[in-house]
Automatic annotation (TrEMBL):
Keywords recorded for this protein, A-Z: ATP-binding, Nucleotide-binding, Transport
Keyword ATP-binding attributed: yes
Record-linked Gene3D superfamilies: P-loop containing nucleotide triphosphate hydrolases (3.40.50.300)
Matching SUPFAM superfamilies: P-loop containing nucleoside triphosphate hydrolases (SSF52540)
Stored Pfam families: ABC_tran (PF00005)
Domain ABC transporter: 2-231
Tree of life domain: Bacteria
Name of the molecule in the record: ABC transporter
Keyword Nucleotide-binding: yes
GO molecular function: ATP binding; ATP hydrolysis activity
Transmembrane segments: none
Protein family per UniProt: Belongs to the ABC transporter superfamily.
Length: 320
């Protein structure tokens, strides 16, 4: 549905994005993650046709966004970080206006507007001026304008930006529902949101895509060792020394110490499970094991590792 082939965007001698390759099949929600200035918004503007690539090819449903720009854009709904709404228009009037410029057939405009207002729970505010709506409702209007023409593809740039926790939950559920009928690309700095919503994640750093996979697979890929968390009732130095001798334990770090107990973080060999031996070793020393859990890498760990490494082109690098 969405294909990027060796796409680059240069601003003079400066690189915006460099040699991007990305494929998003029909019906998938893909999360685009990256630090500020990494190239997320540039990538979205390229996909939606707001920017033209310096090199490479982008197709939407088989249509080239440059050579068949109009046909490609008809299949896209776009919600920028700041929704393109007119504060002095009513919700219904604005959506009617958007439906017309999006070339919804005249005979179907009213039905399309009523349908999208119902779907996004805007019917009760349809006569209100957009400028008087809350941030959450303005975001709903922004989503409504993106889908009023029933596009194949939705591109959402920071759809939860500026919302309170309740509004974030509501928008998240709306996106999940929209993902059942549309191919969705969304950018977000809220990592739990991406983990909860997205089947695939693309991480972009300094203009380059450095990883694309399912969130869980990414976590497994970066995890060179597993981590155990243990709390033991016993003398600190003796406990640490004993735990370090358990087969499969690579390193031991004290994370907390209290009266008569110590909490530890244990790096263990990937694929090993020393928990049983650890239990019996501590029991043999009459040191009660108060807690023992396995900690898995999460999307935040992946993001931090891949965006703090020297991956991708250096910011502001110059073309050869």
């Amino acid at each position: 549905m969405i294909e990027l082939e060796r796409v680059s965007k240069y601003y003079g001698n400066r690189v915006g994005v460099d040699d991007l390759n990305l494929s998003v099949p029909k019906g998938q929600i893909l999360g685009l993650l990256g630090p500020n200035g990494a190239g997320k918004t540039t990538t979205m503007r390229l996909i939606t046709g707001y920017l033209e690539p310096t090199k490479g090819k982008i197709t939407i449903a088989g249509y080239d966004v440059v050579e068949d720009g109009l046909k490609a854009r008809r299949r896209i709904g776009y919600l920028p970080e700041n929704p393109p709404v007119y504060p002095d228009m009513s919700v219904e009037g604005y959506l009617t206006f958007v439906a017309r410029i999006r070339e919804v057939p005249r005979s179907e405009v009213t039905q399309a507007v009523q349908h999208v207002m119902g779907r996004l729970e805007l019917t009760n505010v349809r006569k209100r001026l957009i400028g008087r709506l809350s941030k959450g409702y303005k975001q709903r209007v922004g989503l409504a304008q993106a889908i009023v023409h029933t596009p194949d593809v939705l591109v959402l740039d920071e759809p939860s930006s500026g919302l309170d926790p309740k509004q974030i939950t509501e928008i998240r559920e709306l996106i999940r529902e929209l993902g059942k009928e549309h191919t969705v690309i969304l950018s977000s700095h809220i990592l739990p949101e991406v983990s909860a919503l997205c089947e695939q994640v693309a991480i972009i750093n300094k203009g380059k895509i450095v990883a694309v996979d399912r969130p869980k697979s990414l976590a497994q890929h970066i995890q060179g060792s597993a981590t155990l968390k243990a709390t033991v009732k016993g003398p600190r130095e003796d406990v640490v020394r004993t735990v370090q001798q358990v087969e499969g334990v690579l390193a031991v770090k004290v994370t907390k110490e209290g009266e008569g107990y110590v909490s530890l973080s244990l790096d263990v060999v990937k694929g090993s499970d020393p928990r049983e031996e650890l239990f019996y070793t501590l029991a043999g020393r009459d040191w009660p094991l108060l807690e023992l859990t396995r900690q898995e890498a999460n999307l935040e760990d992946v993001f931090l590792q891949l965006t703090t490494e020297e991956a991708g082109a250096k910011e502001g690098q110059r073309r050869a």
